[in-house]
Design a protein that fits this description.
alpha/beta, four-stranded antiparallel sheet, 13 strands, binds pyridoxal-5'-phosphate
Length: 396
C-alpha cells in the first residue's frame, strides 16, 4: 500500500466526517435563504445563531460579538482596515510584529500607503516579542496593537495576556490573529483583554472559506463588504450557511476534546523532535521549546536545500512544508525565519511539519528515518558539507 503521511496541518486540515454530515442538508433540502420570511428558510437563521453561540461560548464571548467572514484572511483585513478608518480621528498608528501572517503584513503595507504609520516589532531568537519594546513603541496616536496568538511557521505562542494588559492600560485596542491557536490551546477573550480576534474554519477540521472576526461590544467597526443587512449590517452577502454550520460543528468537536487531543499530538511530536535532534547532526529546532503550539515542528538542517528535501519526502508520500515562500513563486527564505535571526543559507534548509491527531508514533518514526536518509544523501552531494567535514571532522 502506498504511504500517505500528512504533516501540513498548519496549511489546512481535512473536514471531520461529522462536519461534512452536518453541512450536507444545507446544499439540498435546507437550501433556503436565511433572510427570507417563511419558516422553511428562517429556520436556517436559527441554525446560524446556534453555530454563532457555540463559537462565542468557546471564547467566553457573546454571540453578537461574532461576525462570520470568508476566512482568516478576510477577518484580518477587516480588523485592520476598519479600525484604521473608524479611529482615524484618535490616531493613525498601528503596532504589529515582523512575524505576522501575510494577511496582516500585506494589509499593513496597504495601510501605510494610505498614510497609516505602522511599527513592526522585532522578535527574539525564539520568535517572542519583547514587552518592553512594545511599551516603548506606543505613541499617543497608537490606535491598535495586532499580535498573532501563535505563529504559523515556528509555532511560538506570544504572551497574549500580557500584551492585552498593556493595551488595556494604555486604552489601545488589541487584535490577535488566532487562526493557528484556535482549537489547539485555550483562548478566553475577557481574561486576555482581546478586543478583536480572527479565526478560520479549515485550520481546525472545518470547511474552507469560512472564518470569523470577534469584535468586543463597544468597539467601533464598519463594514468591509457593503450590501444587505446580514451580520448586523457589517458583513453583507447571503450567509455561507453550510460553511457556518460546518464551522460550528468543527468548533464543537475541537473544544470537546482539545486538552486530550493536544496532549496526544504533543507527545507524538516531542518524541519526533527528540529523535531528530539526537540522530541528525547540524540541526536546530526553530521556535520556542516550551511556548509552542502542540503540533508544530520547525527545523533548520545545515548543508541541504529545504526544497530538495520536500520533494524527496513527497516521493515517499510525506507532505510537509519548507521555510521558503515557495508558494508565492519566490525562493526568498521566510520572513519569520529571517526575523528570528537565521542567516539565509540556514533558513533555506528549513522544514515545517505540523501534526494532526491522526498522525501516529510509527508514522513519525518512518518520517524521521526518511529525513535521516534523505539528509545523508543530499549532504553527500554537497561540496559545502564536504569542505566543512574536512575542516572540522565529523563529530563537532
Ligand atoms: C491560515 C492562516 C490565515 C489565513 O486564513 P484563511 O482562512 O486561509 O484565509 C491567517 N493567519 C494565520 C496565522 C494562518 O495560519
Amino acid at each position: 500500500m502506498e504511504q500517505f503521511i500528512y504533516l501540513d496541518h498548519a496549511a489546512t486540515t481535512a473536514a471531520r466526517k461529522e462536519v461534512v454530515e452536518a453541512m450536507l442538508p444545507y446544499f439540498t433540502n435546507q437550501f433556503g435563504n436565511p433572510s427570507s420570511v417563511y419558516g422553511f428558510a428562517a429556520k436556517n437563521k436559527i441554525e446560524i445563531q446556534k453555530a454563532r453561540e457555540t463559537i462565542a461560548d468557546s471564547l467566553g464571548a457573546k454571540k453578537e460579538e461574532i461576525y462570520f467572514t470568508a476566512g482568516g484572511t478576510e477577518a484580518d483585513n477587516w480588523a485592520l482596515k476598519s479600525i484604521a478608518e473608524m479611529y482615524c480621528t484618535k490616531g493613525n498608528h498601528i503596532i504589529t510584529t515582523k512575524i505576522e501572517h501575510h494577511a496582516i503584513l500585506h494589509t499593513c503595507e496597504y495601510l501605510e500607503k494610505q498614510g497609516v504609520a505602522v511599527t513592526y516589532l522585532n522578535v527574539d531568537e525564539n520568535g517572542l516579542i519583547d514587552l518592553e519594546e512594545l511599551r516603548a513603541a506606543i505613541r499617543p496616536t497608537t490606535i491598535l496593537i495586532s499580535v498573532m496568538f501563535a505563529n504559523n511557521e515556528i509555532g511560538t505562542i506570544e504572551p497574549i495576556k500580557e500584551i492585552g494588559e498593556i493595551a488595556k492600560e494604555k486604552g489601545i485596542l488589541f487584535h490577535t490573529d488566532a487562526v493557528q491557536a484556535y482549537g489547539q490551546i485555550p483562548i478566553q477573550v475577557d481574561e486576555m483583554h482581546i478586543d478583536l480576534l480572527s479565526a478560520s474554519g479549515h485550520k481546525l477540521n472545518g470547511p474552507k472559506g469560512i472564518g470569523f472576526l470577534y469584535v468586543r461590544n463597544g468597539v467601533k467597526i464598519g463594514p468591509l463588504i457593503h450590501g444587505g443587512a446580514q451580520e448586523r449590517r457589517r458583513r453583507a452577502g447571503t450567509e455561507n450557511v453550510s460553511g457556518i454550520i460546518g464551522f460550528g460543528k468543527a468548533v464543537e468537536l475541537a473544544m470537546a476534546d482539545m486538552e486530550a487531543r493536544s496532549r496526544k499530538v504533543q507527545s507524538v511530536r516531542d518524541a519526533a523532535i527528540e529523535r531528530i535532534l539526537k540522530e541528525i547532526p547540524y540541526v536546530r529546532l526553530n521556535g520556542d521549546r516550551k511556548r509552542r503550539l502542540p503540533n508544530n515542528i520547525n527545523i533548520s538542517i545545515q548543508f541541504i536545500e529545504g526544497e530538495s528535501l520536500l520533494i524527496m519526502l513527497d516521493m515517499k508520500g510525506i507532505c510537509a512544508s519548507s521555510g521558503s515562500a515557495c508558494t508565492s513563486g519566490s525562493l526568498d527564505p521566510s520572513h519569520v525565519l529571517l526575523a528570528i535571526g537565521l542567516p539565509h543559507e540556514i533558513a533555506h534548509g528549513s522544514l515545517r511539519m505540523t501534526l494532526g491527531e491522526e498522525n501516529t508514533k510509527e508514522e513519525m518514526d518512518f518520517v524521521v528515518d526518511s529525513i535521516k536518509e534523505i539528509v545523508e544523501k543530499l549532504r553527500a552531494m554537497s561540496p559545502l558539507y564536504d569542505d566543512f567535514v574536512k575542516q572540522n571532522g565529523r563529530n563537532v
